[in-house]
């Protein structure tokens, strides 16, 4: 066991505070990672504040982890000391169901073991990346290509793969019109990746406040959803709409923007139930779906793609003492576009 410094929520809705946690000894197939940077995802706030379900406390959030391997178990073949690596939203799965065998560990039939706010196979609570070190089985670690600095790579382990996976699955690319709803931590990566894939990209945001940013990130068009005329002008336009907003929307209005056989994919997860009017799906064979992160092979593919195209997250680097302020700023949409903790400050 190794004692490491971390920032944890001692109870639901309580401010995070500095503490220490125990990391397991490095097993045969484990790697010990010195965490250099950890992104702050809106999911961290949902879970630290019991927004989705009752959590396990004390809770160390963080599933956007980038660092350097400092020790490997005797059976490890994929990594060596000094390698630059990342860990995303999960650290294990059953490994034997059809989904796991297909590299879709995020859809493990038994449920993946999440990086934090879960229980590992050893019966111990998992703790996340707001810490100095983490021990992870090599099969759930990915390599960060040299073309990406670790600070801008960290958010890719959630925000990057959460948008890359549906864009690839629904064939975003040349000749396709893609809309991204919301220009935040997820949305800004959705715009970058959709543009790099060759799609014609439109941002649909509440206001035009971030229009200049959206166009710089790769959007071809930018519309305000607070303007009713937007829904008239864009009716029947898009092949794919990627909704990154974690709040209820007028889904009927957004579904009306799809072409025949178009799909609206949700990657934002509201805390409250949402209402869908089924009639809004009829007439043009529209679909409404969702997507959850990505498997380990696809996460590596995403990192390689981002390195090839020079795509890192737009970040604001903060010290650990600023985590609680950062949470409030995320809720106020006051970040462009991802907070990343310098874990040397923990």
From TrEMBL:
Its EC number is 1.1.1.2. It catalyses: a primary alcohol + NADP(+) = an aldehyde + NADPH + H(+). Signal peptide: none annotated. Transmembrane segments: none annotated. Keywords: Metal-binding, Oxidoreductase, Zinc. InterPro entries: ADH-like_C, ADH-like_N, ADH_Zn_CS, CAD-like, ER, GroES-like_sf, NAD(P)-bd_dom_sf. CDD domains: CAD1. Residues 14-341 form the Enoyl reductase (ER) domain. Its cofactor is Zn(2+). It holds the Pfam family ADH_zinc_N. Belongs to the zinc-containing alcohol dehydrogenase family. This is alcohol dehydrogenase (NADP(+)). The lineage of its organism: Bacteria, Bacillati, Actinomycetota, Actinomycetes, Kitasatosporales.
